[in-house]
Amino acid sequence: MKKKIEDLENEIIGLKATISLIEKASAVKGETQQKPVPTEIKEEGNPSPPVAQPVVEKSSPKPPQETAQPKPEAAQTETPTTQITIGEKKVAAIFQHDNEIKIDVLVPLNQDTPPFKSFFVEKVLRDYEKKDKLKEQQGQIPTGQGLSYDVSVDEDNNIKQIWIRNVNDPRRTREIISTIRWTMARMIEKENK
């Protein structure tokens, strides 16, 4: 029971951080609040098949280039640590390995649908990446240990996987998971209009 309470308290912290990020982004763009889509995170779930796709978004100062990347080792029958469900539909399976997060997207979501690139990639992942690069330059973390990410898409530009590496802070992990859940809910809302 104590573990469940602790997990829920940690999720509340992550959700508050996500709300803060969203409010900051909304204030910058002057966006109005949209009707929320019911979302739910379920622990454990059905494994999703591994997918190797071309990488179209890579964290780096260089412009993204389409290159084939070998997928990090993963068991064929791995079980997600978390699933994102919107309404009755399973949208994504999240796998956590050491300091990595792998998000397998289970439904077609085009990477150009807002707020994926404009918010999740630019305001969340790239901001973390920039902070870590600064920490590397200041010697606070070893070189090469800063957050980095890859986004894989299929031939229709739908997101298949998101790999986020060097997530060394549990709070950051919660924020990323909460933020991708919110982002996917908004994307589905926009694609269903």
State the low-pLDDT regions, or none: 31-75
Task: Tell me the distance between the termini.
Answer: 41 Å
Tally of helical segments: 3
Order of helices and strands: HEEEEEEHEEH
Q: What is the total tally of β strands?
A: 8
Fraction of residues in β-strands = 15-25%
Question: How would you portray this structure in words?
Answer:
The protein has 193 residues and is an alpha+beta fold. The chain has one domain. The chain has helices at residues 2-29, 116-137, 170-191; strands at residues 39-43, 54-58, 67-68, 82-86, 89-97, 100-105, 148-153, 159-165. The protein has an eight-stranded antiparallel beta sheet, with helices on one face. The relative contact order is 0.20.
Question: TL;DR of this structure?
Answer:
This protein has 193 residues and is an alpha+beta fold. It is built from 3 helices and 8 strands. Strand 4 (82-86) and strand 5 (89-97) form a beta hairpin.
